[in-house]
Each structure stands twice: as structure tokens, then as C-alpha cells.
């Protein structure tokens, strides 16, 4: 019984450490590094269940709710676009958001693969 209790306690602790709690997007305004994903993932299912389309304006974020629309602005060239969160990620440390190839093209970051961006949630 004691082993069961200790095992449950450890699992609860680990689950708490690994949680990706969904946050309230109202007022969300963060700066960080964006990357993009494209052809390799085209047609595969996103975490929201829809197929990924590299030609749509979508993005992956760890905590924003699916369906949240955010304005992404490239801080180097001031180009921006609105994307809809439909996936979870990025899965690389130090990245804030993964945008679709179409969004990356509009942001002017295809050549570099990453860009320092500002992300602002839009109220619908």
C-alpha cells in the first residue's frame, strides 16, 4: 500500500511538472523566437485534429487555446500577419511559436528559418 501511495504521489508530481496549462488569451502579448514548419508536416494531423496545411495562416503554441487568433510581427522588418492557433508546439527549447510556411513567407523569415517576433492575441 505504501508503494502504491508513493507511486501515485510521484506520478502526480511529474504530471504537474509536465503540464501545458491552457492560458487565457485576453491581453496576451509576448516577445520571443518564432520558427516555421511546412512541407514535411503538410497533411498530417495537428493537435486540434485538423490536417496541417502549410499554405494556411496557422500556428502552434504551447498554451494558447485552439482557435485563438494572434497578430505575429517580425521585429526585424515590421512585417506582420494574423494566424490561428491549431496545434501544440514548438517542441524546440527557446521558441515561442511555430508558424505555417505561408505565415513565415508573409513575415519575411523563410531564409533565416527563425525570427524574433511579438505575439498579440486578438479579441474577436
Question: How does the SSE layout of this entry go?
Answer:
Elements: H1 2-17, E1 29-37, E2 58-60, E3 69-74, E4 80-87, E5 95-100, H2 101-107, E6 114-121
Parallel strand pairs: 1-5, 2-4
Antiparallel strand pairs: 1-6, 2-5, 3-4, 3-6
Summarize the structure.
The chain is an alpha/beta fold and 124 residues long. The chain has one domain: RlpA-like domain (Barwin-like endoglucanases, Beta Barrel).
Overall geometry: globular
Question: CATH class, please?
Answer: Mainly Beta
Contiguous uncertain segments of 5+ residues = 7-19
Counting copies of identical and different chains, the oligomeric state is single chain
Indicate the percent of residues in helices. 10-25%
Quote the CATH topology. Answer: Barwin-like endoglucanases
- Biggest sheet statistics: 6 strands, mixed, barrel
* Ends distance: 51 Å
Number of strands: 6
CATH 4th-level superfamily: RlpA-like domain
SSE order: HEEEEEHE
CATH architectural designation = Beta Barrel
Which strand-content bin applies to the residues? 25-35%
How are the strands of the largest sheet arranged? 1-5-2-4-3-6
Structural class: alpha/beta
Q: Average the pLDDT over all residues and give the rounded result.
A: 88
How many domains comprise the coordinates?
Answer: 1
Number of distinct helices:
2
- Rg is 17 Å
